[in-house]
Amino acid sequence: MKSSAMRKNIILSLAIGTATGSFAFVGTNGGTTTNAQANLGEPRTPRERVQDEVRRRLGRSIDEKVSEGHAMLLPLSQRRIMRFKVAGDDAPRVRAGGGIDVDLETGSLIDGDALLTQELAEIRRRNGKQSASLRRAATSIGSDELVEVAITIAPEGDPTVFKPAVHGKTGMSHRQAENLRQASIGDFESRLRAHRGKLLDKLKENGIEATFSTGASTVFAKVPKRILSDIESVSAVSEIDTVSVGGENELNIVSDTLNYNPEIHQIMGIRGNGVTVGIVEVASGTIAAHTNLTGIVEYGTGSVRSHATGVAGIIKSNNTNDPGFSPQVTLRHGGSATQSTRQTIFSSHVTNSAASISLSYAAGDTTVRSPNSEDKFLDERFTVDWVLPIKSAGNRGATGCDGTDGHTTHPGLGYNTLTVGGFNDNNTVTRVGDSIYNCSSFTDPTSANSDREKPEIVAPAVSIRTTNTTNGFTAGSGTSYAAPGVNGLAALMRGGDPGIGIYPELTKAIIMATSTWNIEGNAVISDNDGVGAIDPLAAMQVLQRSSGDHWASGYMSCNSTFPFNGTAALVAGRRTRVVTVWHQDTTFVNYETLPGADLALTVRDPSNAQVADADRWDDTWEVAEFTPSVSGTYTISIGKWRCDKAPKYIAVAWYQVP
């Protein structure tokens, strides 16, 4: 587990020619008085300085709504600043008056977002369109040597296909949902086609063939180093990255003690009928023929794979003693060691109605702590295909595992992807004694404000009994077995409401809102278990509007009306969690380091007093917890703190623990 001291000293370096840009925590104590302030004889803490300014702008005090300070170093200038937010409906008026961040050297008020944007723009200008990984790889090869690259192109214009706002059940059939999904993919492809054509023409001029998947912005090619600058000159190209080479399954130990026990379908009467899910593996081959695995659709052929067979059983084993989460689903499977083929497989799953797809492998350089091209592809699928990618966190948590650095693995570093760590239930029916799986990865991605969280949730990962290649059952451990459990849960949710399959933000919000079992650290968010361990029964209850509720907006741009509000009928004395999730648009110019939109979550009681808020900086979700003191109607409000790129769709889910 990372200590708070370690979190305050995480540094992200961005190589920019001979210069270096870096982000860092320099502390989170908004009560520290700067030397400059002391010298000026003004014993005011940064937070008090901001509270004074907010009072001046509003003409009244809202001191309690000013967040605690969040300190950072700007990436180029290395200026030490402390950042603040204001919660609630007053935020737009406060923001209109300019920044409310503090320069820790001078004590003056500054606009941290504006300064950060300027410095990131300068980094991009110096770096060009080549990723740090590609620049590093290119230094060791000659001008005529080939390098395999993933080239991202930007679409033309804005979306023209939208899904409706919903509250509770969507009222859609599987077919209606799929028709909308395919229309969205078609719209995106039509906006890509002309730009992709310009890139393909440039490559053909140099005798280079390329591959791509319809409806995806990534083009793959092997190019000589000398033409990288020519590719950059194509205006539609937004980034050139290396491809993820090789990869490994995230299954670590084999033993034989415990059944997964996901008999939620027996309680709710939902078994996944009519639902399709997918799995993508890092090796080609097939799932073994097994008495308890029916309804498998293979993308390709090849050797029987034990890892894929085990993953399949967790989702859909129909054995009475060793059941999968969703026994009646149709499961589409495919795998490849090649990133371009994995992306083709993923898109094929989506074309054939898979609404959630789990990926239990690590691919790419784990020392690169920002999203790479494969992470970006999955984030794009969330926001274009309206599909939920579910990725294992990795097994790099301790000696004897795949590594000891704790790094969450690619492609699980994206903003939209739901990344799943693992826990050990120690073969007990109750939750007492549960512990984090020692191998489960936990190190967060780097970002501008250094507060992203991966994994978001954890699921059982130790001694999980599942199908094997000899028509029997064997137990294994690894986050490889945590991710498909969540995929199975998403399938059950789609069985309960077919339309939710095109609302991945809503599925993610419900799962996070109901993952209230805290295994380590802070009860709301902590390093190893994110927001907590999954609770399938609670998720299904919220889906059915029992013990909670859920809703999602229609399309939201930066110019849409905020705050986006909803109400919740809450019972006093019950622990309550509220989660909101929105989209990270992969076309955002600062995608790797910042979300395109920074939204804020607040909750007000029946008397309109604020009772909870959440003020993270770099994730595309917020979570707040509180215990209502009175029963009644509470207002859940999603406000806009910063918006450079549309959040697209906003989902809210709340849950009261029995």
Can you characterise this structure?
The structure is a single chain. This protein is of the alpha+beta class. The chain folds into four domains: 4-126, no CATH class; 128-172 and 185-242, Peptidase S8 propeptide/proteinase inhibitor I9 (Alpha-Beta Plaits, 2-Layer Sandwich); 248-540, Rossmann fold; 552-656, Jelly Rolls (Sandwich), CATH 2.60.120.380. Helix content is 25%, strand content 25%. The protein is built from 15 helices and 33 strands. Strands 15, 16, 17, 18, 20, 21, 22 and 23 form an eight-stranded mixed beta sheet that branches. Strands 8-26-33-28-31 form a five-stranded antiparallel beta sheet, covered by helices on one side. It has a four-stranded antiparallel beta sheet with strand order 3-4-5-6, with helices on one face. Mean pLDDT is 88; it is low at 1-41 and 253-261.
Gross CATH architecture of the largest domain:
3-Layer(aba) Sandwich
CATH class of the largest domain: Alpha Beta
Number of discrete domains: 4
Q: Compute the number of helices.
A: 15
SSE-based structural type: alpha+beta
Total strands: the figure is: 33
What is the helical fraction, as a range of percent?
10-25%
The description of the largest β-sheet is: 8 strands, mixed
CATH topology of the largest domain: Rossmann fold
Shape: globular
Q: What is the radius of gyration?
A: 24 Å
Poorly predicted tracts of residues: 1-41, 253-261
The overall pLDDT, averaged over residues, is 88
Measured distance between first and last alpha carbons: 29 Å
Q: Tell me the fraction of residues in β-strands, as a range.
A: 25-35%
CATH homologous superfamily placement of the largest domain: Peptidase S8/S53 domain
